[in-house]
Amino acid sequence: MNPDRIRNFSIIAHIDHGKSTLADRLLQITGAVSERELQDQMLDSMDLEREKGVTIKASAVRMLYTASDGETYELNLIDTPGHVDFSYEVSRALKACEGALLVVDATQGIEAQTLANLYKALELDLEIIPVINKIDLLAARPDEVAQEIEDLLGVDALDIPRVSAKEGTNVEQVLEAIVEQIPPPQGDPDAPLQALIFDSHYDPYKGVIAYVRVFHGRIRKRDLLQLMSTGAEVQPIEIGIFSPRMTPVEELAAGDVGYVATGLKSVQECRVGDTITLAANPAPEPLPGFEPMKPMVFAGVYPAEADDYNLLRDALEKLQLNDASLVFQPETSQALGFGFRCGFLGLFHMEIIQERLEREYGLDLVFTAPSVEYQVTLTDGSEIVIDSPAELPEPNHIEEIREPWVQIDIITPTDYIGTVMDLVINRRGEFKNQEYLDARRVQLSYTIPLTEILVDFYNELKARTRGYASLDYHFHEYRPAKMVKLDLLVAGQPVDALSIIVHEDQAYQKGQKLVSKMKKVIPRQQFDVAIQAAIGNRIISRANVKALRKNVLAKCYGGDVTRKRKLLEKQKKGKKRMKMIGSVQVPQEAFMAVLQLDDDK
Prior knowledge:
Layout: E1 6-13, H1 19-30, H2 47-52, E2 59-66, E3 72-79, H3 87-95, E4 99-105, H4 112-123, E5 127-133, H5 142-153, H6 171-181, E6 194-203, E7 207-216, E8 218-220, E9 225-227, E10 233-234, E11 238-242, E12 246-248, E13 251-253, E14 257-261, E15 275-278, E16 297-303, H7 309-322, E17 327-333, E18 337-344, H8 347-360, E19 365-367, E20 374-378, E21 383-386, E22 398-413, H9 417-426, E23 430-436, E24 441-449, H10 450-453, H11 457-464, E25 470-481, E26 483-490, E27 493-494, E28 500-503, H12 507-521, E29 529-535, E30 538-545, H13 561-581, H14 588-593
Parallel strand pairs: 1-3, 1-4, 4-5
Antiparallel strand pairs: 2-3, 6-7, 6-15, 7-14, 8-13, 9-10, 9-15, 11-12, 11-14, 16-18, 16-19, 17-18, 20-21, 20-22, 22-24, 22-25, 23-24, 26-27, 26-28, 26-29, 29-30
């Protein structure tokens, strides 16, 4: 198709503002999907995406639309996630576009991720088309939200399309705005090939399938292609477009969005952000790629059955093909055996990976408590980076520990400013500034240690603000902190997988909570089991799990008391001998209990 009639665009929004529903309506109106095939969340192909109601993977689709001027246009839509943990998917998708639809909920207005995604799009100099969605709801206030958008973007409030993606109201206006406002791609179809890989997934029959946006040149099926960063050469098995199913075509030209089935079996050979060119006539330089994503959260992943170790490794390698942000390396634990240390973008990302491993690969897994990456300066002047409590050196070898801090932006109704401030300050947060968005809502900015928002911060924020607050965060800096390793000893033996790194001020409180939790989940044995929390060689908390006792006096009725004493002494000696040789099996619930240390507040 003539490049002047191509429009490449993304849909960006805060989580749950209706991106996927709007995409469904666009597919329906353009006829890309027949009425018989149409279903809700058409582009969310994963079961998890449908169950949780969120988009996890960016997905692409080509639509043909006949505009009011009578011309037919090719619209390439890249649907993006809204959750803060998947913001890297958004930035990659935006690189492949010339414009973006900014969807704002008519009841909620502008929220934290709306702004974060908007700034990403503006940095890439994309054409922004604001769209107000959910006007069919009783609580909708489209005029106020339009005014908010006008104040933010300088777009006339009267020109903003007001739609109900669910009902299909005014969605045609959005298509017309895409055709009129988003510029066509600027690329030379006769120049040497430059195609950007913006996503990928693994197919057992076709190998790594690279999602590409062609900037210059053409890809034909018989061309020998080269990946510019690795120099690997591939003969494509198939090239095609998403409509929304994968549909083979003969060629992809400048401006097109499609896929290349490479036949490669390893994600290392076909990296997201790489440039594809022709082996016979390579481009002089690659396109600017993406910053590799840096994991924020680390956790140990172990198979519940030791025999499943190889299955777990294969599953992680296949998941990494679909999700380039997942990193892992082998590690060993005395308590859990062989497993992997995995890096995730956030706790939601970790939860998704856990569910995918259990569902798609049928694995029974144990996840350890999440940790973050610490920078440690040793007494000899050297520096190390650790992401597992087990790697932390002895206190006498440590000069300084630095922990990661993030900047968080919270948008909340003004009624809840006090409770939000209380929540953040109690978690060592530092106030930066506040800005009133309108008479009812305020944006609060803080810096806070990443460890403090890892586990239950978001749930607590939602609970305290009745669900109205929204949160966005990004890495700020590393700062020195008084961190200590809190070990858990069961029957005198340290359980390395239950160690956590905590701030010195919170160590006693966390130690007591950890011991109390463990007392509930560790089963009773034939002997007393001591559960202790320790910092170095110093025990800071202890509890005993009482022994199971057989009633050895049941057969004694009447008679001399010395006989009873003799039986009790015999039992006591037996228990003592058992304690010396007995070992305690720590159940899986114990590793999950560490995650809920703050639930008792």
